[in-house]
Write a structure and sequence with these properties.
Largest interface: A-B, 49 and 43 residues
Radius of gyration of chain A: 20 Å
Distance between the termini of chain A: 27 Å
Largest sheet of chain A: 8 strands, mixed
Number of helices of chain A: 9
Structural class of chain A: alpha/beta
Order of helices and strands of chain B: EEEHEEHEHHHHEHEHEEHHEE
Structural class of chain B: alpha/beta
Distance between the termini of chain B: 26 Å
Helix content of chain B: 25-40%
Oligomer: heterodimer
Strand content of chain B: 15-25%
Order of helices and strands of chain A: EEEHEEHEHHHEHEHEEHHEE
Strand order of the largest sheet of chain B: 6-7-8-3-9-10-12-11
Helix content of chain A: 25-40%
């Protein structure tokens, strides 16, 4: 059984003028112990997707629908209260983008990490303290840091605290939303090594949300590429990095300036789609150099390239 | 080629409050020397707190250096009074990181571009309109007449940054400081802006100082790279040499820390340098990188501050491993 199965998940935003189709029919699965990278540029819907998975629906969210099956149970059908009591933080937790700045400035960081543990009645203060020290050791923070305040810590240390906090109740899935994008590259590399260790040693599953497709290759077994509120390509890291099938994925990879090669980076001209009125057919078609007859008018289904590798592109129809 | 900018032993120190009565000195820049040839792009690469942004701000005289000298086309401008900088202010322009906050939201694009012309008294109304349209076309924003009538909120991030570039170009400057010009632009559009700047540089012979944390774009879009660490330049040389044969252990570590897209990455640990950059109020003695350096020589590196010297042709490093 898969750890997580997401089927046709949708979440839109109601603004005064129109409906923004931020998450528009997302389907994917995740096996236990794996890391899935969700890669997309700004406005692709990747952060909205994480909020929809964690059921942290913004007030103007509308049209939330679809199935989210965690360890065999459809958690999308739970009430908000039920979700909070049974799922969030306990079986599924999240490290938010820039979360290190959301630590309470007047509480010692150890207290903040222990908080979910005490809330969940897993034991009294003693066990909570023990658990906190165990987690600090796990994320390679010296034990004495529990008694420090957030302003006494560097950005990298605060992010380690946030990771410790996400693990306090032993969830089976942790969603990481741009966990390193506020950090310098040398600290980012330390953080990625830590995440690799946690994945290997604890068998934790991760959903790793990032705008940086190269960084996703540092942790993820599978990659989902998002564009315009939808997944346009999904496959193993080998599939997506070595033989990408969607023109958007191909161009995104070619747009990265390589350190080790003279090859000049390309760019995708034009702008991402307006999600209040996305193109009728393929959402990438107005920018796609290969667009042909069906692309503008017909929505491409997810064509299977091979077992475990799919792509929403009409170019693949021939092969079906 | 001839030299446009020469910076000698530049120091920028800030006073920072510490507690109620005490203050400490933050050494944002501590002895930086470099020169820029006309028409070249020098990238300044470093992590936060390395001093790269302060260096750019000093080069544009947006702040007055604590010590050292800055020569622009032979004239000292580092300590010159603001009233005598007007000509420099026309010839040196900046493009900044955030295209959302660096353009006035209440001014149309045309008004934004007209402002520098008005300040420097360039042309009459008709000539100004022609210059505005020309610079919008230069940055591929067309039709220029339509774009000039728009307001910033009607443009995408990439289009706004092109307006920022058009504003920098309109006075036909000799020098442009570009401080993280693409870090808020989506990855797939970054190269478009960088190619545009390169094309304009070639067309008009502009000298660029490109400040970035992204050493990969520096490789592709600059002639030379200067690597900064803790307020100093630790290595400087031709871009491909810096990447392919880095001399300073910090440069080497910085390059290794960056993942290239490769599915095998997840199967191996990335070599990392331990610890974090030093506090700018209490930098380590000797080489500032020595506490984190895997090659530190005990008895030397923590004692003697290595000078930046030429190790290979046009390639300098400040490291005891390369005594010259």
């Amino acid at each position: 059984m898969s750890l997580l199965e997401v089927r046709d998940l949708r979440m839109h935003y109601a603004t005064r003028e129109a409906v923004v189709r931020a998450v528009d029919g997302i389907t994917f699965g995740l096996e236990r112990g794996q890391a899935l990278g969700i890669v997309g540029e700004s406005g692709s819907g990747k952060t909205s997707l994480s909020l929809a998975l964690m059921r942290l629906l913004p007030r103007n969210a509308t049209g939330y629908s679809g199935e989210v099956t965690l360890e065999g149970e459809n958690i999308a059908a739970l009430s908000d209260d039920g979700f909070r009591q049974l799922i969030r933080w306990k079986r599924m937790s999240m490290v938010f983008q820039g979360a290190m700045n959301s630590l309470n400035p007047v509480l010692k960081v150890g207290h903040q990490v222990a908080e979910p543990y005490l809330q969940a009645n897993r034991g009294g203060k003693g066990p909570a303290q023990e658990r906190t020290l165990e987690l600090f050791d796990l994320v390679r923070l010296p034990g004495e840091v529990v008694n420090r305040y957030p302003h006494e810590l560097s950005g990298g240390m605060k992010q380690r605290v946030m990771i410790a906090m996400s693990l306090v109740l032993n969830p089976s899935l942790v969603i990481l939303d741009e966990p390193t994008s506020a950090l310098d590259v040398s600290i980012q590399a330390q953080m990625m090594n830590l995440l690799k260790d946690l994945k290997r040693d604890l068998g934790i599953s991760f959903i790793f949300i990032t705008h940086d497709i190269a960084l996703a290759s540092d942790l993820c077994d599978r990659i989902a590429v998002m564009y315009g509120g939808q997944i346009v390509e999904l496959g193993s890291s080998e599939d997506v990095f070595l033989s990408p099938k969607h023109p958007y994925t191909q161009r995104l990879l070619d747009s990265i300036p390589r350190l080790t090669s003279e090859e000049a980076p390309v760019f995708i001209s034009g702008a991402p789609p307006d999600l209040t009125a996305p193109p009728i057919g393929c959402r990438f078609s107005p920018r796609c150099p290969f667009a042909f007859e069906p692309c503008a008018d017909r929505v491409p289904p997810a064509f299977i390239v091979k077992e475990g590798h799919e792509s929403r592109c009409w170019l693949l129809e021939q092969g079906q | 080629m001839t030299e446009l900018i020469r910076i000698e032993d530049l120091q920028v120190h800030f006073q920072a409050r510490k507690g109620l009565l005490n203050s400490v000195v933050v050494r944002a820049l501590d002895g930086v020397s470099l020169s820029l040839e006309r028409g070249e792009t020098l990238a300044v690469v470093g992590e936060s707190g390395s001093g790269k942004t302060t260096l750019g701000r000093a080069a544009l005289r947006l702040l007055r250096p604590t010590g050292g000298r800055i020569f622009f086309d032979g004239e000292e401008i580092g300590q010159t009074h603001e009233s005598r900088l007007k000509e420099f202010r026309r010839r040196a322009q900046g493009v900044f990181q955030d295209p959302y906050s660096s353009i006035d939201p209440f001014m149309s694009i045309g008004q934004t571009l007209e402002e520098p012309l008005a300040i420097h008294g360039v042309g009459n109304a008709q000539e100004r309109t022609a210059l505005i349209h020309k610079s919008l076309e230069d940055v591929n924003l067309s039709p220029a007449g339509e774009v000039a009538a728009k307001y910033p909120h009607m443009l995408s991030g990439g289009q706004r940054q092109r307006v920022g570039i058009a504003r920098a170009l309109i006075l036909k400057p000799d020098f442009i400081l570009a401080d993280e010009p693409v870090s808020m632009i989506d990855a797939s559009s970054r190269a478009e802006i960088l190619y545009l700047m390169r094309d304009l540089q070639r067309a008009y012979g502009i000298t660029f100082l490109y400040i970035t944390h992204d050493i990969a774009t520096a490789r592709h879009f600059s002639d030379r790279i200067a690597v900064m660490y803790a307020g100093r330049i630790v290595e400087m040389g031709p871009s491909d040499r810096i990447i392919e044969e880095p001399l300073h252990p910090y440069t080497d570590a910085l390059i290794r820390a960056i993942p290239e897209p490769d599915p095998a990455n997840r199967l191996r640990q990335r070599p990392v340098i331990p610890g974090e950059p030093p506090s700018p109020t209490e930098p380590p003695t000797g080489c500032r990188f020595n506490p984190r350096c895997p090659h530190a020589i005990a008895g030397t590196c923590e004692v003697i501050d290595p000078p930046l010297i030429e190790v290979k042709p046009a390639h300098q490093a400040a490291c005891h491993l390369w005594p010259g």
